[in-house]
Design a protein that fits this description.
The complex is a heterodimer of chains A (218) and B (119). By secondary structure, chain A is mainly α. Helices cover 83% and strands 0% of the residues of chain A. Chain A is flat, with a radius of gyration of 20 Å. Chain B has a two-stranded antiparallel ribbon with strand order 1-2. Chain B is elongated and about 60 Å long. The chains are: A mainly alpha (218), B mainly alpha (119). The interface between A and B is medium-sized, with 29 and 22 residues.
Chain lengths: 218, 119
């Protein structure tokens, strides 16, 4: 179990690096990814040699990732500016404030807030009975809260990613938002928002496609 | 926070200092995790420097000429059965910058003591 926790933590770190290096020039992107991969490997090896617990190592690893997020963001902005990025057509499209984009953003933020509320309420107020029965009050609350927090985090990541990669970012938002909302059909609020999100995404994608076909329109 | 030109941030000074200590210990080049560990040991900190903070600083310092880096030979990494390391070393410019920073810090400390001393 503890080995799995460490693998998960390393997986989160790798996924984060892949996310914030997406869209950069290959040499910059691959260099950064390789450097962090090496660091992660060295940290795990050092912990293994010293006989440190995998749970503690996983926590340290995640802490290093989380505390470095603002610096990662700054580096990404600088690295993107420093060299001329050979942009693909989809990135040439400026994300101006079309109504479809505003609607997509607004609904995505509402859904994020809804999922955060869900996570908090499962953790504190109304713990998922199934998880509580199976894993106990504490872990049941933690697992129940993840149902809300994980989609919220992924939606936020998708909204951030779409600044550089609009289509991929939008897809990440949809993948994070829609299945959970559909799974919680009884909330009504979630599925309605998810449906609106899909509609705005379709409108936005049509706009992007139209802009791409008429060069200089953006 | 705006920094004065030609000054080192505390982390940069720590990286240069740790890099020179590692070199004195017989390791001419260091990689990211090694320097993070060296800084943690030197400062008796609880946590290693965060990825983003460390690698952003290393990148910035290389751009400023304080560090030089190269990628490890892939065959060496493959033989050791690990990912390739990016190896850094402190340049002459980096050594000079650290010496300058220490001198400036010493002068400031003396001035402060004089300012606080009873007249």
């Amino acid at each position: 179990m503890s080995g799995v926790v460490l693998l998960l933590a390393a997986g989160v770190a790798h996924a984060w690096v892949r996310l914030y290096t997406a869209g950069l020039r290959a040499e910059v992107r691959d260099g950064r990814r390789a450097e962090i991969a090496s660091d992660l490997w060295e940290q795990q090896q050092a912990a293994s040699v010293l006989g440190d617990g995998t749970g503690g190592t996983a926590l340290q690893l995640l802490t290093r990732v989380l505390l470095g997020i603002p610096a990662d963001r700054d580096w990404r902005v600088t690295a993107g500016r420093r060299r001329r990025v050979d942009r693909l057509p989809e990135r040439r499209v400026r994300m101006n404030r079309s109504r479809a984009q505003q609607g997509f953003l607004g609904v995505a933020l509402l859904l994020t807030a809804f999922y955060v509320f869900l996570g908090v309420s499962n953790a504190v107020i109304n713990q998922e009975p199934t998880f509580v029965e199976r894993f106990g009050a504490v872990w049941g609350g933690v697992l129940g809260s993840l149902i809300g927090f994980i989609p919220a985090a992924l939606i936020a990541a998708g909204l951030w990613l779409q600044r550089w990669a609009p289509v991929r970012g939008g897809i990440l938002v949809l993948v994070a938002a829609v299945p959970v909302a559909v799974g919680m059909y009884w909330t009504v609020f979630g599925p309605v928002l998810a449906l609106l999100l899909v509609l705005f995404w379709i409108l936005r994608t049509r706009r992007l496609t139209r802009d791409r076909k008429t060069p200089g329109a953006a | 926070m705006r920094r004065k030109a030609d000054t080192l941030l505390p982390l940069e000074a720590s990286i240069l200092d740790a890099g020179l200590q590692v070199r004195l210990g017989g390791v001419p080049e260091f990689h990211g995790f090694l320097i993070a560990k060296a800084i943690k040991d030197q400062q008796a900190a609880r946590l290693l420097t965060a990825h983003g903070t460390l690698y952003k600083a290393l990148d910035r310092m290389e751009q400023a000429g304080l560090l030089a880096s190269r990628w490890e030979d892939p065959l060496a990494a493959a033989a050791a059965n690990r990912p390739r390391r990016r190896l850094y070393q402190v340049t002459v410019v980096g050594e000079a910058a650290l010496a300058q920073a220490r001198t400036t810090a010493g002068v400031r400390a003396v001035s402060l003591r004089r300012g606080l001393a009873p007249s």
